UniProtKB/TrEMBL annotation:
Keywords: DNA-binding, Transcription, Transcription regulation. Residues 1-53 form the HTH lacI-type domain. Pfam families: LacI, Peripla_BP_3. PANTHER family: LACI-RELATED TRANSCRIPTIONAL REPRESSOR, LACTOSE OPERON REPRESSOR. This is LacI family transcriptional regulator. Residues 1-43 form the HTH cro/C1-type domain. InterPro entries: Cro/C1-type_HTH, HTH_LacI, LacI/GalR-like_sensor, Lambda_DNA-bd_dom_sf, Peripla_BP_I. GO terms for molecular function: DNA-binding transcription factor activity; transcription cis-regulatory region binding.
Length: 333
């Protein structure tokens, strides 16, 4: 850093301000410092900076062992946000998200000297476990609901379900059937709640949901069941993988999508646009989840409670309309 300061003709403190993103440096001075950084191929020493700030610059993340799109994408969003903030990430995965497993994972991260912890906790058991999170550790939860006792970054799942159902009702469908996720997931419960509320607000009694487990296989089984029921013209699946299985089942039964039945998913997985037909779905911004959770954690570390509360505002999902939805058949209108 001293060499950079000498080459740029500025003080050591000015170089530090530029590298830390301070706004108290003139643009021309900042440019001069950055040119010197490039010329000398300077890379800040994370350990030295951590010693100076009394922080390790390491973030702990507790997740559970899964390849499901939502949790995996949330983890990636957190890692990107941490890297942008100058943090490394230490990840601990647990097979069972319960009180003992979360406590053991927190102890592992504590021994590594992490500055704080983000817990991906979309299951009911995980949210319950967080109420007993070790005292003294700065922590933020993701998708843990309102009862975890920790600041939480989350997507408004109820609003996402509302977008899906309103879209289908707006096309003229009399009702919307639902393939639900597993009952021990907070997101699945919220999507059921959003689906049911929206139908009730339109004066429509919600039909009994068909149970799924997030997998394409369960969506396929649900699709075979729904294909045999009269009057089904619109289905909202709680995630895109179950929607994928549904599309396969309907195709095997000779039911056309969207001419006979419209289908909406949730998540907007990368493959959604390439299914046949391309899937209408609700998109979650997982990068924004990462940014919000990281912002909340840094606010707690800096004791900025108001900013932490702002970071915890629910993230609004968006509807992506593709070719799997259309007006119902004329005979059912």
């Amino acid at each position: 850093m001293t060499d950079v300061a000498k080459l740029a003709g500025v003080s050591h403190q000015t170089v530090s301000r530029v590298l830390n993103g301070s706004s108290k440096v003139r643009a021309e001075t900042r440019e001069r410092v950055l040119r010197a950084v490039d010329a000398l191929d300077y890379r800040p020493n994370a350990m030295a900076r951590g010693l100076a700030s009394r922080r390790s610059k390491i973030l702990g993340v507790i997740g559970f062992d899964t390849i499901l799109h939502g949790p995996a994408s949330t983890l990636l969003g957190i890692e990107r946000a941490a890297r942008t903030a100058g943090y490394g990430v230490s990840i601990v995965t647990v097979e069972q998200v319960d009180r003992i497993s979360v406590a053991n994972a927190a102890e592992t991260l504590s021994r590594q000297g992490v500055d704080g912890v983000i817990v991906i906790a979309p299951q009911l058991a995980a949210a319950s476990a967080l109420r007993h999170f070790p005292a003294g550790m700065v922590a933020v939860a993701v998708e843990a609901g309102q009862d975890s006792g920790l600041p939480s970054a989350s997507v408004d799942q109820i609003a996402g379900a509302r977008l899906a159902v309103e879209h289908l009702l707006g096309l003229g469908h009399r009702t919307v059937w639902h393939i639900a996720g597993p009952g021990n997931w907070l997101e699945a419960r919220d999507r059921i709640e959003g689906w049911r509320r929206t139908l009730n607000a339109a004066g429509i009694a919600a039909p009994e949901p068909v149970d799924g487990d997030w997998s394409a296989r369960s969506g396929y089984r649900a699709g075979l069941e729904l294909a045999g029921r009269p009057g089904v013209t619109a289905v909202f699946a709680a995630n895109d993988h179950m929607a994928l299985g549904l599309l396969r089942a309907l195709h095997e039964r000779g039911i056309r999508v969207p001419a006979d039945i419209s289908v909406v998913g949730f998540d907007d997985i990368p493959e959604a646009a390439y299914l046949f037909p391309p899937l209408t779905t609700v998109r979650q911004d997982f990068d924004e989840v990462g940014r919000r959770s990281m912002a909340a954690l840094l606010s707690l570390l800096d004791e900025r409670e108001e900013e932490c509360e702002a970071a915890a505002e629910p993230i609004q999902p968006t509807l992506v309309v593709r070719d799997s939805t259309a007006a119902p058949p004329a005979s059912t209108k």
